[in-house]
Amino acid sequence: MDTMIGVIGGSGLYEIDGLEGADWVTIETPWGDPSDQIMTGVLDGVKMAFLPRHGRGHVHSPTTVPYRANIHALKSLGVTDIVSVSACGSFREDMAPGDFVILDQFIDRTVAREKSFFGTGCVAHVSLAHPICERLAGACLTAAQEAGVTVHKGGTYLCMEGPQFSTLAESKLYREVWGCDVIGMTNMPEAKLAREAEIDYASVAMITDYDSWHPHHGEVDISEIIATLGANSENARNLIAKLPKLLGATRDTCPHGCDTALDFAIMTVPEKRDPDLVAKLSTIAGRVL
Ligand SMILES: CSC[C@H]1O[C@H](OP(=O)(O)O)[C@H](O)[C@@H]1O
Ligand SMILES: Nc1ncnc2[nH]cnc12
């Protein structure tokens, strides 16, 4: 099968360069419009798609990012592997602003988002014990090392609803009691939806700040984040440029089952399925419906 790498760019990363035949394409989905047009092209012989999560000009808040439309749009283009890039606060002294963390776990504290393509009339339950594709995360780690970035392997991302930053009590809870490593506002439900869409997903956290817990750094503010975003996004671009050679133009089925997640997931018996929902699901779940 052909590889197609989908990059979802977070705060500070609204476009990438160097794609051959670069073209911004408009995709319509049954879940509404994606955050923006998607840039498609080829890098080192590998098909690529780039979507700015908040839209060019940073239009969508973490709550109003159209997560389902975004994942559907990438799936409809043939994306097999999603690399998410996100600005994050750090809960660890040794994960400093400017460092990257290749995530391996999430805690979802969001409360105001649509989190599934499925629902009444077609119920499905996918496994999410390991939300990150190990193979893809490994490629991101190598790409970051090759790009000369200080990178940490593994980390748990607390996804908060936002848009306000955490209170000091929340920051301490997530760090001291829950043992989280980084905090952001967008990787959930993105990772859940990618799993439902059977797309391998990995996430690169670009540290911008120490949230609010650090006794010597005071509370997080947006000017501190923006000051770090420029250098981070340059490093992210360099990381992305290394990925096609590491992943290759063709791929095998994911050995950990990321791209066969729907094999036994659908619970609703065929005769009870809602035909309208089944039609909406054809791009995401047509393989098993
Ligand atoms: C710019 S600070 C808060 C904002 O940045 C992160 O966005 P993303 O994950 O898309 O890089 C964070 O989640 C918030 O949305
Ligand atoms: N401290 C923080 N909390 C939530 N999202 C963030 N994005 C960047 N820094 C953040």
Automatic annotation (TrEMBL):
Give the reactions, separated by semicolons, that this protein catalyses. S-methyl-5'-thioadenosine + phosphate = 5-(methylsulfanyl)-alpha-D-ribose 1-phosphate + adenine
Binding-site residues for substrate, renumbered to this chain = M185, D209, Y210, D211
GO cellular component entries: cytosol
Protein residues bound to phosphate = S11, R53, H54, S86, A87, T186
EC id: 2.4.2.28
Role = Catalyzes the reversible phosphorylation of S-methyl-5'-thioadenosine (MTA) to adenine and 5-methylthioribose-1-phosphate. Involved in the breakdown of MTA, a major by-product of polyamine biosynthesis. Responsible for the first step in the methionine salvage pathway after MTA has been generated from S-adenosylmethionine. Has broad substrate specificity with 6-aminopurine nucleosides as preferred substrates.
| Subunit architecture | Homohexamer. Dimer of a homotrimer.
What is the protein named?
S-methyl-5'-thioadenosine phosphorylase
Species whose genome carries this gene: Maritimibacter alkaliphilus HTCC2654
What phylogenetic lineage does the species belong to? Bacteria, Pseudomonadati, Pseudomonadota, Alphaproteobacteria, Rhodobacterales
Gene that this polypeptide is encoded by:
mtnP
